[in-house]
Amino acid sequence: MRLLPFDYAVRNLGRSRTRLVLTIMASALVVLLVLTAAAFVRGMANSLVNKSAGNNVILMAAGSEESLERSQIPGSTAGIVAASLPGIKNRFGVTYVSPEIHAAIIVKDDKEGSRSWHAVVRGFLPEASLVHPRASVIQGRMPKPGKDEIMVGGLAAEMMGVPDSRVAIGQSLWFDNRRWNVVGRFTARGTVLDCEIWVPLTDLQVATKRETVSCLVVTLDDAEFADVDAFTKQRFDLGLTAISETDYYASIMKFYQPVHAMVWTTAFLIGLTGLFGGLNTMYAAFAARVRELGMLQSLGFPRRAIMISIIQESLLTSATGTLIGSMLGMLLLNGRAVKFSMGVFQLVVDYRVLLLGVAAGLIMGVLGAMPPAWRCLRLPIIEALKAS
Question: Does the UniProt entry include the keyword Membrane (predicted)?
Fold first, then answer.
């Protein structure tokens, strides 16, 4: 089959600069939108899935599986579990059992409460650093019990809607009519831990006026989840239920599936709008080239060869828009913080997301060229040459 020279498609790009710019903008917009949707879903999934360690198990009050904040178990349960459940990871005599309080509270700017913000707070003991190895102190130190000190996550400021300098070391926040000084900053990138404020467990118990804890996070060594599950069913007096950390956050991901569907649907509809806009642009462009296409057929070029040249022309345009959209996506989206009910997560533009955006842009280039080109090429050669 005799093909048209590739530079024929390249030269045609400059015939209408307005059409070229509009087509590139449409491709870039579609790619940017697909990247936004994919980065949103990817970031939310990472914040929930990456947090979970495969050998971590959460013990909470029976009947509170859907919300750790509602769970309340006696603080003494941690010692009972550590002593009675074999197979828990142990290092230098320290058992990997972390009693924790999970609470959503309102923190204030000052004693009078001139400004207030919602914050996610976690009460912890030193064992928390063992069961949550992704959390690490990057500035300052861990807060000491009884000193009204707190440690702030890297995305806590985003969660509260304040500048990061507002929660820097040396700053203070108010809750429970007390001033709490920020003495440390920690990071747990890619997890929901990163948006939390950590408070010594006993101090948070006093502040929230409770003697109980929300849950125990246990890291297993030789034991398996079935062993922990059997333990909770045998010890009815403790009133516990066990769920692996992986399954717990997977259930939260399932809860947010409608949000994911809405994001993808919105991206699809706007992408479809961009595709139709590209089709209209292509129809207008090729309608003025009917005689040219008819002349190419009369010179012996088959319709398939002309169609390939037109697709090449469209792909060059859409590839340019795809490149622009991908660069904008990496610059504007990657790492941007987004608030949701569980806290804050960061948009993730990784190679999978980029491949999806590039595929969307190139598919748009092919689909945008074929219908208008076929409409022009199906005319008999004589009619095409007579077209005005």
Answer: yes
